[in-house]
UniProtKB/TrEMBL annotation:
<dbReference type="InterPro" id="IPR027417">
    <property type="entry name" value="P-loop_NTPase"/>
</dbReference>
<keyword id="KW-0418">Kinase</keyword>
<keyword id="KW-0808">Transferase</keyword>
<dbReference type="Pfam" id="PF13671">
    <property type="entry name" value="AAA_33"/>
</dbReference>
<dbReference type="GO" id="GO:0016301">
    <property type="term" value="F:kinase activity"/>
</dbReference>
<protein>
    <submittedName>
        <fullName>Putative kinase</fullName>
    </submittedName>
</protein>
Amino acid sequence: MPTLVVIRGNSGSGKTTTAREVRRRYGRGAALVEQDYLRRVLLREHGSNRHDPVAPAFIDATVRSALGLGYHVVLEGILDSGGHGTVLRRLIADHAGPASVFYFDVSFEETVRRHAGRAEPIPVTADMMRDWYADRDLLSVEGEHVIGESTGFDAAVETILHVSGLAAASALTPCPTRCHRCAEKRRT
């Protein structure tokens, strides 16, 4: 049964970089679903819960599809409880396999500092970030793990891999289980 990992937090908290590294360390067989990519790039939808956005349902369908195809899924984004909480709680409850939720609890000042040092900057100001910032926006689901701002990058990645069980989870998809290219790499 595939593993579902949900990584949430405010803008600039480090969740995207961490989620990408979790997936990189896991390897093939894990899908990375990024809220910003689906909402901002694919749908070109503004981030607001005031206009009945499509993104929450689209994220839900994408994650369910990947899980149904045997992919472990790392879902990351702000995924605020007001706009995504109901969808996320239902997704977690409906998933028959292991599911873990991680929340990056980082102060506003630290999110602004981290945002300024991003490798891939996005055009937002501290004032814009303040409008989005939600203090300790937990989903309140069983086993939700809080990762504090003093947790280092490697420690956060290792925590997510091990607590979720992803570190020990076998790949379930054809690539790498039956893929000839992956088999060749294992032989060399």
